[in-house]
Amino acid sequence: MTPLYAQDKFKTARENMVKHQIMDQGITHSATLDAMRTVPRHLFVPEDLRPHAYRDMPLPIGHEQTISQPYMVAYMTQSIEPKKGMKVLEIGTGSGYQAAVLAEIVDSVFSVEIVEPLGKQAAALFKKLGYTNVEVRIGDGFAGWPEHGPFDGIVVTAAAEEIPPPLIDQLNENGLLIIPLGKPGSVQTLVMVKKEKGKLIRKNLLPVRFVPFVRE
Ligand code: SAH
Description:
The structure is a single chain. By secondary structure, this protein is of the alpha/beta class. It has helices spanning 11-23, 30-38, 70-79, 97-103, 116-129, 165-169; strands spanning 59-62, 65-67, 87-91, 108-113, 134-138, 151-156, 171-181, 188-196, 199-208. The protein has a single domain (3-208), classed as Vaccinia Virus protein VP39 (Rossmann fold, 3-Layer(aba) Sandwich). Helices cover 27% and strands 27% of the residues. The strands form two sheets. It has a seven-stranded mixed β-sheet with strand order 5-4-3-6-7-8-9. The protein is globular and about 45 Å long. The model has no long low-confidence stretch (mean pLDDT 95). Bound molecules: S-adenosyl-L-homocysteine.
């Protein structure tokens, strides 16, 4: 995609974010680094928080939700090994930032958000920024988005106690799914699942803290 906002007053802040928060912490996947250099994170946070958009922390986006820390977005993106030709599902659109980062790399992103105003706001922002390869659905992401599946990668950005079975069903052979698992309010584990010959291979990645996966 041709970035509409690649040249802006936050360009240096974005470069510094990629260098010091992301590369220095071990992220090496070049398409992920390029996407993080391109997406205007400041436009995905509330206006009064824009000066803080490139800091090494999650930020509130209203409705008791947060935009994840830049490193976590880069880590999750790199983990599903995104590349051209892929179709990815995200559960928890939130600000839309993670979806935009993925949309820079893969062919299409389908993102489900349960809080209607957040989903609508993200969809409007994708339109404004020219992300024509991201679609948002308002609803409970537990069901995934069967009409568009199966997916080559699935990224869940809210913490569930277990992996919603429909998401497993909608994961392609050799597809990767990443999800924080654990109780809300406590430390959770970021878990990666690969579907290989119909079987699931599960790996625990790192301790994390995400907002809870809620049900309708
Ligand atoms: N990926 C987002 C992070 C948002 S925080 C970003 O880049 O900004 C997680 C989001 O998951 C919240 O917006 C929350 O409303 C949403 N969420 C929680 N449970 C959900 C569910 N069952 N289905 C869809 N979205 C859900």
